[in-house]
Amino acid sequence: LSPGAKMGCFTFIKVMMILFNLAIFLSGGTLLGVGIWVKVDGESFLKIFGALSSSVLQVVNVSYLLIVIGAILLVIGFLGCYGAQKESKCLLMMFFSVVLIIFIAEVAAAVVALVFTGLAETLLTGLVTPLLKEKYGVDDTFTHIWNVTMTQFHCCGLNNYTDFSNSYFYETRGSYPRQCFGVSPPLAHPHLRGCLLQGCFKQILEEIKTNAGVAGGVAAGIAALEIAAMAVSMYLYCRLDEK
Protein backbone atom coordinates (compact mmCIF):
# COMPACT_ATOMS: atom_id res chain seq x y z
CA LEU A 1 0.00 0.00 0.00
CA SER A 2 1.06 3.58 -0.68
CA PRO A 3 1.84 5.87 2.28
CA GLY A 4 -1.42 7.74 1.62
CA ALA A 5 -3.44 4.52 1.65
CA LYS A 6 -1.72 3.38 4.85
CA MET A 7 -2.48 6.71 6.49
CA GLY A 8 -6.09 6.52 5.33
CA CYS A 9 -6.41 3.01 6.74
CA PHE A 10 -4.84 4.13 10.03
CA THR A 11 -7.21 7.10 10.29
CA PHE A 12 -10.25 4.93 9.55
CA ILE A 13 -9.31 2.34 12.17
CA LYS A 14 -8.51 5.11 14.66
CA VAL A 15 -11.98 6.64 14.16
CA MET A 16 -13.64 3.22 14.48
CA MET A 17 -11.65 2.59 17.67
CA ILE A 18 -12.84 5.92 19.11
CA LEU A 19 -16.50 5.28 18.20
CA PHE A 20 -16.40 1.67 19.42
CA ASN A 21 -14.95 2.63 22.77
CA LEU A 22 -17.29 5.59 23.10
CA ALA A 23 -20.12 3.05 22.80
CA ILE A 24 -18.43 0.89 25.47
CA PHE A 25 -18.07 3.95 27.72
CA LEU A 26 -21.76 4.84 27.34
CA SER A 27 -22.77 1.20 27.90
CA GLY A 28 -20.69 1.16 31.07
CA GLY A 29 -22.42 4.28 32.30
CA THR A 30 -25.80 2.72 31.54
CA LEU A 31 -24.98 -0.51 33.40
CA LEU A 32 -23.63 1.49 36.32
CA GLY A 33 -26.89 3.43 36.46
CA VAL A 34 -28.99 0.24 36.24
CA GLY A 35 -26.88 -1.35 38.97
CA ILE A 36 -27.51 1.59 41.27
CA TRP A 37 -31.22 1.43 40.39
CA VAL A 38 -31.41 -2.29 41.24
CA LYS A 39 -29.56 -1.64 44.50
CA VAL A 40 -31.95 1.15 45.49
CA ASP A 41 -35.19 -0.33 44.09
CA GLY A 42 -34.81 -4.06 43.40
CA GLU A 43 -38.57 -4.68 43.46
CA SER A 44 -39.11 -2.55 40.34
CA PHE A 45 -36.39 -4.53 38.55
CA LEU A 46 -38.15 -7.74 39.54
CA LYS A 47 -41.52 -6.52 38.25
CA ILE A 48 -40.10 -5.45 34.89
CA PHE A 49 -37.97 -8.52 34.12
CA GLY A 50 -40.15 -11.18 35.73
CA ALA A 51 -39.34 -14.75 36.74
CA LEU A 52 -35.86 -14.92 35.21
CA SER A 53 -34.71 -11.89 37.17
CA SER A 54 -36.06 -13.53 40.31
CA SER A 55 -33.97 -16.63 39.60
CA VAL A 56 -30.85 -14.65 38.76
CA LEU A 57 -31.18 -12.53 41.87
CA GLN A 58 -30.99 -15.69 43.98
CA VAL A 59 -27.64 -16.63 42.45
CA VAL A 60 -25.83 -13.31 42.27
CA ASN A 61 -26.22 -9.88 43.74
CA VAL A 62 -27.19 -8.25 40.46
CA SER A 63 -26.79 -4.69 41.70
CA TYR A 64 -23.14 -5.12 42.70
CA LEU A 65 -22.42 -7.18 39.57
CA LEU A 66 -23.82 -4.48 37.28
CA ILE A 67 -22.00 -1.74 39.18
CA VAL A 68 -18.66 -3.59 38.88
CA ILE A 69 -19.18 -4.41 35.18
CA GLY A 70 -20.30 -0.86 34.48
CA ALA A 71 -17.24 0.60 36.21
CA ILE A 72 -14.91 -1.75 34.28
CA LEU A 73 -16.55 -0.79 30.97
CA LEU A 74 -16.19 2.88 31.83
CA VAL A 75 -12.45 2.40 32.40
CA ILE A 76 -12.01 0.32 29.22
CA GLY A 77 -14.03 2.78 27.13
CA PHE A 78 -12.05 5.73 28.45
CA LEU A 79 -8.66 4.08 27.86
CA GLY A 80 -9.55 2.97 24.33
CA CYS A 81 -11.31 6.16 23.25
CA TYR A 82 -8.87 8.67 24.75
CA GLY A 83 -5.84 6.54 23.90
CA ALA A 84 -6.83 6.34 20.22
CA GLN A 85 -7.79 10.01 20.04
CA LYS A 86 -4.50 11.17 21.62
CA GLU A 87 -2.53 8.40 19.88
CA SER A 88 -1.03 7.47 23.24
CA LYS A 89 0.96 4.25 23.22
CA CYS A 90 0.77 4.03 27.00
CA LEU A 91 -3.04 4.22 27.10
CA LEU A 92 -3.40 1.82 24.17
CA MET A 93 -1.18 -0.72 25.92
CA MET A 94 -3.16 -0.27 29.14
CA PHE A 95 -6.36 -0.83 27.14
CA PHE A 96 -4.94 -3.99 25.56
CA SER A 97 -3.75 -5.31 28.95
CA VAL A 98 -7.08 -4.70 30.71
CA VAL A 99 -9.10 -6.36 27.93
CA LEU A 100 -6.66 -9.30 27.82
CA ILE A 101 -6.97 -9.84 31.59
CA ILE A 102 -10.77 -9.74 31.36
CA PHE A 103 -10.74 -12.14 28.40
CA ILE A 104 -8.53 -14.64 30.26
CA ALA A 105 -10.76 -14.37 33.35
CA GLU A 106 -13.88 -15.04 31.24
CA VAL A 107 -12.30 -18.09 29.62
CA ALA A 108 -11.22 -19.42 33.03
CA ALA A 109 -14.71 -18.85 34.45
CA ALA A 110 -16.28 -20.67 31.49
CA VAL A 111 -13.94 -23.65 31.94
CA VAL A 112 -14.68 -23.81 35.66
CA ALA A 113 -18.44 -23.59 35.00
CA LEU A 114 -18.26 -26.47 32.50
CA VAL A 115 -15.85 -28.74 34.36
CA PHE A 116 -16.86 -28.13 37.95
CA THR A 117 -20.64 -27.78 37.66
CA GLY A 118 -21.24 -30.00 40.70
CA LEU A 119 -18.75 -28.04 42.77
CA ALA A 120 -20.36 -24.77 41.68
CA GLU A 121 -23.77 -26.05 42.80
CA THR A 122 -22.33 -27.04 46.19
CA LEU A 123 -20.74 -23.63 46.61
CA LEU A 124 -23.99 -21.96 45.59
CA THR A 125 -25.89 -23.88 48.25
CA GLY A 126 -23.26 -22.98 50.83
CA LEU A 127 -23.53 -19.29 49.97
CA VAL A 128 -27.29 -18.86 49.62
CA THR A 129 -28.51 -20.93 52.61
CA PRO A 130 -26.73 -18.72 55.22
CA LEU A 131 -28.20 -15.66 53.50
CA LEU A 132 -31.69 -17.08 53.89
CA LYS A 133 -31.10 -17.56 57.59
CA GLU A 134 -29.65 -14.09 58.08
CA LYS A 135 -31.43 -11.78 55.61
CA TYR A 136 -34.90 -13.27 55.06
CA GLY A 137 -37.31 -11.11 57.06
CA VAL A 138 -34.60 -8.48 57.62
CA ASP A 139 -33.84 -7.15 54.14
CA ASP A 140 -37.13 -6.15 52.46
CA THR A 141 -35.88 -6.51 48.87
CA PHE A 142 -34.23 -9.87 49.53
CA THR A 143 -37.38 -11.10 51.30
CA HIS A 144 -39.65 -9.93 48.47
CA ILE A 145 -37.50 -11.61 45.82
CA TRP A 146 -37.62 -14.91 47.67
CA ASN A 147 -41.36 -14.62 48.28
CA VAL A 148 -41.93 -14.14 44.55
CA THR A 149 -39.64 -17.07 43.73
CA MET A 150 -41.32 -19.44 46.20
CA THR A 151 -44.79 -18.41 45.01
CA GLN A 152 -43.98 -18.78 41.31
CA PHE A 153 -42.15 -22.08 41.59
CA HIS A 154 -44.25 -23.56 44.44
CA CYS A 155 -41.21 -24.33 46.55
CA CYS A 156 -39.77 -23.53 49.95
CA GLY A 157 -36.21 -22.33 50.63
CA LEU A 158 -33.27 -23.26 48.46
CA ASN A 159 -33.02 -26.94 49.49
CA ASN A 160 -36.26 -27.29 51.50
CA TYR A 161 -38.10 -25.72 54.44
CA THR A 162 -35.24 -26.57 56.84
CA ASP A 163 -33.27 -23.68 55.31
CA PHE A 164 -35.44 -21.47 57.52
CA SER A 165 -34.83 -23.50 60.66
CA ASN A 166 -32.90 -21.46 63.27
CA SER A 167 -33.22 -18.46 60.96
CA TYR A 168 -33.97 -14.90 62.00
CA PHE A 169 -37.46 -15.22 60.52
CA TYR A 170 -38.25 -18.45 62.36
CA GLU A 171 -36.81 -17.22 65.64
CA THR A 172 -38.87 -14.01 65.55
CA ARG A 173 -42.11 -15.35 64.00
CA GLY A 174 -42.12 -18.87 65.40
CA SER A 175 -43.10 -20.25 62.01
CA TYR A 176 -41.92 -20.74 58.45
CA PRO A 177 -42.80 -18.29 55.62
CA ARG A 178 -46.44 -18.54 54.52
CA GLN A 179 -45.21 -19.14 50.94
CA CYS A 180 -44.03 -22.52 52.20
CA PHE A 181 -47.62 -23.64 52.79
CA GLY A 182 -50.59 -24.51 50.67
CA VAL A 183 -54.04 -23.61 51.99
CA SER A 184 -53.15 -24.70 55.50
CA PRO A 185 -52.14 -22.05 58.06
CA PRO A 186 -48.45 -21.88 59.08
CA LEU A 187 -47.35 -24.51 61.55
CA ALA A 188 -44.28 -24.86 63.74
CA HIS A 189 -43.46 -28.11 61.93
CA PRO A 190 -44.56 -27.74 58.29
CA HIS A 191 -43.49 -31.23 57.30
CA LEU A 192 -46.42 -32.56 59.32
CA ARG A 193 -49.13 -30.97 57.18
CA GLY A 194 -49.62 -28.64 54.26
CA CYS A 195 -46.02 -27.67 53.50
CA LEU A 196 -44.25 -27.61 50.17
CA LEU A 197 -41.28 -29.84 50.90
CA GLN A 198 -39.64 -29.10 47.55
CA GLY A 199 -36.79 -26.59 47.58
CA CYS A 200 -36.34 -23.95 44.88
CA PHE A 201 -32.81 -24.93 43.85
CA LYS A 202 -33.78 -27.22 40.96
CA GLN A 203 -36.33 -24.76 39.59
CA ILE A 204 -33.88 -21.86 39.76
CA LEU A 205 -31.22 -23.97 38.06
CA GLU A 206 -33.63 -25.07 35.32
CA GLU A 207 -34.72 -21.48 34.73
CA ILE A 208 -31.10 -20.42 34.31
CA LYS A 209 -30.26 -23.41 32.09
CA THR A 210 -33.26 -22.62 29.89
CA ASN A 211 -31.69 -19.26 29.14
CA ALA A 212 -28.12 -20.56 29.03
CA GLY A 213 -28.15 -20.62 25.21
CA VAL A 214 -28.87 -16.91 25.03
CA ALA A 215 -26.27 -16.20 27.71
CA GLY A 216 -23.71 -18.33 25.83
CA GLY A 217 -24.40 -16.49 22.58
CA VAL A 218 -23.98 -13.14 24.27
CA ALA A 219 -20.75 -14.34 25.92
CA ALA A 220 -19.38 -15.54 22.55
CA GLY A 221 -20.25 -12.19 20.97
CA ILE A 222 -18.52 -10.31 23.78
CA ALA A 223 -15.43 -12.53 23.44
CA ALA A 224 -15.30 -11.84 19.68
CA LEU A 225 -15.53 -8.08 20.33
CA GLU A 226 -12.76 -8.31 22.91
CA ILE A 227 -10.46 -10.12 20.47
CA ALA A 228 -11.23 -7.55 17.77
CA ALA A 229 -10.61 -4.69 20.23
CA MET A 230 -7.24 -6.15 21.25
CA ALA A 231 -6.23 -6.63 17.61
CA VAL A 232 -7.17 -3.04 16.68
CA SER A 233 -5.44 -1.52 19.71
CA MET A 234 -2.26 -3.47 18.95
CA TYR A 235 -2.43 -2.40 15.28
CA LEU A 236 -2.66 1.27 16.31
CA TYR A 237 0.12 0.76 18.86
CA CYS A 238 2.47 -0.70 16.24
CA ARG A 239 1.55 1.88 13.58
CA LEU A 240 2.44 4.72 15.97
CA ASP A 241 6.07 3.56 15.80
CA GLU A 242 6.01 3.94 12.01
CA LYS A 243 4.57 7.45 12.30
UniProtKB/TrEMBL annotation:
* Membrane topology, as annotated: Multi-pass membrane protein
Q: Which UniProt keywords apply?
A: Glycoprotein, Lysosome, Membrane, Transmembrane, Transmembrane helix
Q: InterPro entries given for it? A: Tetraspanin/Peripherin, Tetraspanin_animals, Tetraspanin_CS, Tetraspanin_EC2_sf
Is Lipoprotein included in the keywords of this UniProt record? no
Q: What is its main location?
A: membrane
Q: What domain of life does the native source organism fall in?
A: Eukaryota
Pfam families per the UniProt record, alphabetical: Tetraspanin
Where in the cell? Answer: Lysosome membrane; Membrane
Q: Which GO terms describe its cellular component?
A: lysosomal membrane; plasma membrane
Looking up PROSITE patterns in the UniProt record yields: TM4_1
**Any stretches that span the bilayer, and where are they?**
12-38, 58-79, 91-116, 214-238
Quaternary structure note: Interacts with SLC19A2. Interacts with NTRK1/TRKA.
Q: What does this protein do?
A: Structural component of specialized membrane microdomains known as tetraspanin-enriched microdomains (TERMs), which act as platforms for receptor clustering and signaling. Participates thereby in diverse biological functions such as cell signal transduction, adhesion, migration and protein trafficking. Regulates neuronal differentiation in response to NGF by facilitating NGF-mediated activation of NTRK1/TRKA receptor tyrosine kinase and subsequent downstream signaling pathways. Plays a role in the inhibition of TNFalpha-induced apoptosis.
Give the protein family: Belongs to the tetraspanin (TM4SF) family.
Name the record gives this protein = Tetraspanin
- What are the leading ranks of the lineage? Eukaryota, Metazoa, Chordata, Craniata, Vertebrata
